[in-house]
Amino acid sequence: MEFRALYPNELEAWLDHVTHVFSASRQYFSNHWHNDPWKDAAGIRVAVDDGTIVSTVRVFIRKMFFHGEPISVGGIGEVSTRPEYRKHGLATQLLKDSIRFMENRGIAISMLHGSQRIYSVEGWESVPRYYAKKTLIGREQQAWNIHPVNFQDTDEIAQLASLYHTYSRKFNGTFVRDDMAYWTDWVKTESPQTWVAERDGVIEGYVSVRRRNELLNVKEFAASEELFAENRATDFFDVLLSDVIVQMDAKELEVEYPAPIADGFSAQMVEWYGSTMYRVIQPDAFPPKMRQEISEALPDLLHSQSETLKQDIRSHHILWSTDGF
């Protein structure tokens, strides 16, 4: 058995492998490769038996906001082993291999979605994500022109990117999007239902959603600093979603959204389901004042926030589902 990085000429064979193991389409994995401006074949770790890829782990190279500052992240995804090769420790070996890869790249922290014991044994620690639910009635409004985003309009995308940066850095775990190709390729593909609120030619906020019957899932949200100053944009959040509901030809929908946004912890229903797991890779890559705390109280630090960005809410931990892998 050979453990190594994927060779560039093996991409099609790797796509064959992940499509065989998972239920998702080949296009899904192809999109996650071709739409990723930070893709690196060296981050795809594979176990190869007699020329056949039988197990793999991919490290997604990202940066995330942590107490208002960007830190480097290695996202663990596409952990997959062919059925006939399972229970032989291949995934464990590849996770160890991915840790060495991230150490060599000087990556600060690793994160993944899941809660399986295989990850906790190798040092990843669960940090819960909170979601809120409330019913919103569809209502038209006059304050903003609310319309689907035009991903071909460079000015619109630049405005979204600016709003995203100032709003998302208020939380921990949100990804830094400092390459416009990520917006025009990844975000366009993963969150095609994005609606912007425009007034006098200026976009003051936006929301990305996914509708499943009578449930509207908020994939991400952002509001301007001016709107945020007004009760954390709670009113704007409701107005924006209510108008979107009308444009979806619905009378009312149950809206599910990350609880830290729009004062969600005051909603009638707040649930903890789904976790993100984190593992510190390089403590020295964190801001100096946090290096001692980071290994001892990582969950607490992810739920809390710096004094300048603190909102006095239960948790500041968010992962926008647009960025999922």
Give the number of domains.
2
Q: Can you count the helices?
A: 9
CATH topology description of the largest domain: Aminopeptidase
Largest sheet: 12 strands, mixed
The CATH homologous superfamily of the largest domain is named Gcn5-related N-acetyltransferase (GNAT)
Which spans have pLDDT < 50 for at least 5 consecutive residues?
none
What is this structure, in a nutshell?
It is built from nine helices and twelve strands.
Highlighted features:
325 residues; Aminopeptidase; alpha+beta; 9 helices
Question: Care to describe what's here?
Answer:
This protein has two domains: 2-128 and 273-308, Aminopeptidase, CATH 3.40.630; 132-271, 3-Layer(aba) Sandwich (Aminopeptidase), CATH 3.40.630.30. It contains nine helices and twelve strands. It has helices spanning 11-21, 26-34, 90-104, 117-121, 154-168, 180-190, 225-229, 234-247, 298-303; strands spanning 2-5, 44-49, 52-66, 69-81, 109-113, 125-137, 145-148, 194-199, 202-212, 215-223, 252-258, 269-280. It has a twelve-stranded mixed beta sheet. The longest helix is centred in the N-terminal third of the chain and has 15 residues, at 90-104. The protein starts with a strand and ends in a 22-residue tail after the last helix. The mean pLDDT is 95.
